[in-house]
Amino acid sequence: MAASKTAIGYARALVLGRSSVFAFPCSVQDVIQHAGDGLHHEKVYLNRSFSSSRKSSDGEENSPSTSKEIHSPSPSSAAVYEYHGPFSAAVTKVKKLSLFSCACAVGAGPVMLLLDGGTSLSAKMGLAGTLSAFGITTTGLLHWFTHPYVHKLSVGGDRELKIETLNFFAKPVLDVVQLDSVEGGAENSMHPLSTFMANKKVFYIDKDFFADKDVLDILDPPSEEEEEEEEEEEVDDTSSGDGGGEPFLDKK
Fold first, then answer.
1. 83-138, pLDDT tens digit by residue?
2. Are 183 and 218 within 8 A, CB to CB?
3. Of 163, 162, 136, which is closest to residue 149 (Cα–Cα)?
4. Which among 48, 57, 103, 148 has most CB atoms closer than 10 A?
């Protein structure tokens, strides 16, 4: 047992640079003392290395993440509420179908002029012009009717509205306006689809699918009749709630 401890002491003393043990091995007690010193220094070294690694890991965990702070969006630019038109996909498909039919009607005009059907050239030109005019007119009317439809609307923290509509060729158009510059109310325009106006343009939103009631009151302020109806509904709800317990008390 003593021989094994002595061998272990020699080995650890060699690792720690205790070459003096091999140079001057005076006695067994000196060897044991040197081995004990080696174990003591090894323990101190391990404790120091463990404490330093723990401090470095704690520092990394507690250090703030600067990259997240740099790339995080500011509260003013972040979207507070987003509205998506419930019939956006249907309106887009109808407009694309109308554009396709218009292109077919306009493209059929020159083909009709080249056909030999026994009719005069003036008749062919009249028929081709009528067909082309019909295709362009119907597509234009459809665009006039659906162009106020808002496909997407986002409200920013700085009271900025980003409104997305479609142009004549069914491509998205983005309008950026301030909430304070909005002219609410459908009475400001003669268009059948009109909820509010901004920058002299008419926009339409489906109020039943607009969740932010505070913004909706700015875009489309309620009329006096609607306010009276809401007040009457509130009074009816409170009265029914107060009187609901009287029959129960009477029966009891």
1. 999 999 999 999 999 999 999 999 988 888 888 777 788 888 998 999 999 999 99
2. no
3. 163
4. 148
In whole angstroms, give the CA distance from residue 191 to residue 185: 12
Contact 196, 220 (CB under 8 A): yes
Residues, the chain, total? 252
Amino acid in the structure at residue 207: K
Residue with tokens 């020159």: 110
Confidence (pTM): 0.59
Residue type, 221: P
Q: How far apart are CA 240 and CA 121, in angstroms?
A: 78
SS3 149: strand
The pairing of beta strand 201-203 with beta strand 196-198: antiparallel
